[in-house]
Amino acid sequence: MKTAENSGQERKEASYPYYDLEACINFAEQIKSLGGSKGTVKKALLARQVGLAESTPSFFQKLSASKVFGITDGWGAYGLTDLGRKFFYPQSQNDKQEALLEIFTSPEAFRLIVERFDGEKLPTTDIMGNIFHQELGIPDSWKDRVAQMFVRSAHFAGIIDDGGFLRYRAAVHTAIPVPVESKAPTAARSAQEDPLDIPASLVATDDAPKGVNVWSYSSQGKQLKVQTPEGLSKELWDKLNAYVQILQPSKDEQPPK
Which CATH number is correct for 4-88, 1.10.8.60, 1.10.1760.20, 1.10.10.10, 3.40.50.2000? Predict the structure, then answer.
């Protein structure tokens, strides 16, 4: 049977993966365990490792999907990419999360949804499937499955909150601490320089303890400080977000004079 790998179909369908992100991470883990971080692993050996025959669609689809996510690469023999090595062998506190977020947006289909809906509530999988079909030419038989894989992968990456809102950009800024100018007075950044696009003077302070970000916000003579650990976890983010929602004033509430 002619496979997509030797027919060129893989290249035409590289805009979307056949498996979700978690499945591809697990598959790449098998390549890593066989020495794929420093060299390549023959297809036959990899197939035996994962318990699939080389000629099965499932094996090809896992190979293809892990390549579409940018975790692995190769042809006939496979190894981890630089991005895959960054994920499996992080050399700093934030490497693993940074790599995971980059891996998530490697497929063109996933990147399209992030660019269009980040910060908003995700549409239904039916709507996302229609977007995939109309704008990327993903077949009817796959469009809804790809939409479902996007949702599962986003949950795995921790970028969908409890309300169903996509929080990719927020996760990126959580994973990458804003550098603090040492031995320099704290100065307000402009809205263009502010990494969170908040049109006010939200800045990291110079006196933050090691491993902690302290944010100071001033407006109309009032000051607000927020202290967060570097590499804020999803659990702590959920607690912080819930607390902020409690503090949100009603539309009719006026600030005390």
Answer: 1.10.10.10
